[in-house]
Amino acid sequence: MGPEGNNPKANSSSAMRASKLAAVAFAVLAASVYFAACGSSPEQTAPNSAATPTPVAESTQVKFDFPEGDYSKFGHDNEQHARLPCLVCHTREDNSAQMKFSGHIPCASCHVEHFKEPQGQICTICHTDSATGAMKEFPTLRSFNAKFDHAKHTPHTNCADCHQPARSGATFSVPTRSNSHATCFQCHSPNAQFEGKDIASCATCHEAGSPGPRLGGVRALAANFSHSAHGSKQRLSCNSCHNVRPGASRGRQMTAPAAVMHLATARGQNCATCHNGKRAFGGEDFTSCSRCHKGENFKFTAEFRSAENFARF
């Protein structure tokens, strides 16, 4: 065994050197893919500063024939942009949930002509004032969808990792838009892997398309339902009422009881599933309606007011 075999510090140092070499090799590979997509090589365009790209000799610059158009807006759906790996522009140096602009290098490597223009159109993508370098806020999600599959996550995590009590416990939060990064990065940290697969890159969760509507809210809240009154004290868990629908679209992946009591049917779960007079107080007990109905929630629906249904009570 070599001199480092029984030396933990030496082994740690060797591991760190190996890790750094691997990181450098990965960076070189990513750069090679990027420049190949742009049609140039690192030797042809190698700016050395993210803030101010170093001018490249005219004879060594690769020329691109850019069509006339509006270069004040960036689009992921651009044919050339779509060819590039996410890590060319979006590097994760830490586990910050805040997205940051990529700097000049990824853009200036191809858009050489546009960067020659003082305060040109392309500068306004990131800057409010390119002369002073003042930056815009990072834009909200527009051209990418966020994909999430409960069926893939529930075997490895639990509901409370992503959903926190809200409105004094009446409901639970649903991670949306920028809040999603802070929640997801608990597990999807930089360089994170699961079963040998990368789960840290943008493509793990995002795909081209519209972000879709914001998801969240609980319909049963309108009927004065509160999660805080239906928890561990009542020997209930999330799985008592919610089940995963594998393969369902986003927003329809979890089942939920219907917020119906007096007009409940035998199909599926609803309030009457538990409030049957045995497990919990029943719907035929009208001596204390305020246990469920309070304030604006104490009203009859049009369906309940119909003569046929009212006769049932």
- How can the largest sheet be summarized? 2 strands, antiparallel
The share of residues in extended strands comes to 5-15%
Task: List the helices and strands in order.
Answer: HHHHEEEHEEHEEEHHHH
- Proportion of helical residues: 10-25%
Oligomeric state of the chains present here: single chain
Distance between the termini: 86 Å
Strand order of the largest sheet: 1-2
Radius of gyration: 28 Å
Describe the structure.
There is one protein chain. The protein is of the alpha+beta class and about 325 residues long. It has a domain at about 25-135. About 20% of the residues lie in helices and about 5% in strands. The chain contains ten helices and eight strands. It has a two-stranded antiparallel ribbon with strand order 1-2. It is elongated and about 80 Å long. The termini are far apart. The relative contact order is 0.07. Residues about 1-20, about 30-50 and about 305-313 have low confidence and may be disordered.
Keywords:
10 helices; alpha+beta; two-stranded antiparallel sheet
Summarize the structure.
This protein has ten helices and eight strands. The protein is of the alpha+beta class and 313 residues long.
Topology of this structure?
Layout (H helix, E strand, L loop, with lengths): L7 H31 L40 H4 L22 H4 L3 H4 L11 E3 L4 E2 L8 E3 L3 H4 L11 E2 L4 E2 L5 H7 L8 E2 L2 E2 L7 E3 L29 H4 L29 H4 L27 H4 L1 H4 L3
Antiparallel strand pairs: 1-2, 3-8, 4-5, 6-7
